């Protein structure tokens, strides 16, 4: 089990544990703090992260900024990848394709799921992850496809 998943499972049942988990992830990767993520679910094959609609993430028309949505997608896809791939593998985002489908307002929930099972391999491979971001009404406002580069860990 990955360290990220082990920590999540320890904290999730504690009062404020989900908030603390999000803060710890943002300490490790500070840029994600710009969206103040709240983890709703984390397990192999799925990650859900909520972001609140607040002025800090707004664009000039008062909706959630496109790059804040990309940030949520990358965080969600990365965490899902981290807890899903075999322990002998590592990952890094290689590319992202996005679609803006509707104005993003209100609390938004990003859900990341892989397109195929992760496998142990002797060489690196592209592993596509789909992320849908929905508003409070369940409408998709944003979609992303992120190609993760999954490769064997280097020997110590």
UniProtKB/TrEMBL annotation:
Query: Mind telling me which CDD domains this protein's record contains?
Result: PaaI_thioesterase
Q: Which domain of life is it from?
A: Bacteria
- Entries under Pfam families matching the protein: DUF4442 (PF14539)
**Could you say which residues form the signal peptide?**
none
InterPro entries recorded for this chain? Answer: DUF4442, HotDog_dom_sf
Q: What is this protein called?
A: DUF4442 domain-containing protein
Q: Which organism is it from?
A: Dyella kyungheensis
């Amino acid at each position: 089990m990955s360290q990220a998943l082990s920590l999540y499972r320890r904290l999730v049942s504690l009062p404020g544990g989900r908030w603390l988990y999000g803060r710890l992830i943002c300490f490790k990767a500070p840029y994600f703090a710009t969206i103040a993520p709240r983890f709703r679910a984390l397990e192999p094959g799925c990650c859900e992260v909520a972001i609140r609609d607040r002025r800090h993430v707004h664009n000039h028309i008062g909706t959630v900024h496109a790059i804040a949505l990309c940030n949520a997608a990358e965080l969600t896809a990365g965490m899902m990848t981290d807890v899903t791939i075999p322990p002998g593998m590592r990952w890094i985002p290689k590319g992202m394709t996005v679609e803006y489908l509707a104005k993003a307002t209100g609390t938004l929930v990003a859900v990341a799921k892989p397109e195929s099972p992760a496998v142990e391999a002797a060489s690196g491979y592209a592993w596509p992850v789909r992320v849908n971001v929905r508003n409070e009404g369940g409408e998709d406002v944003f979609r992303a496809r992120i190609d993760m580069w999954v490769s064997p860990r280097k020997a110590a």
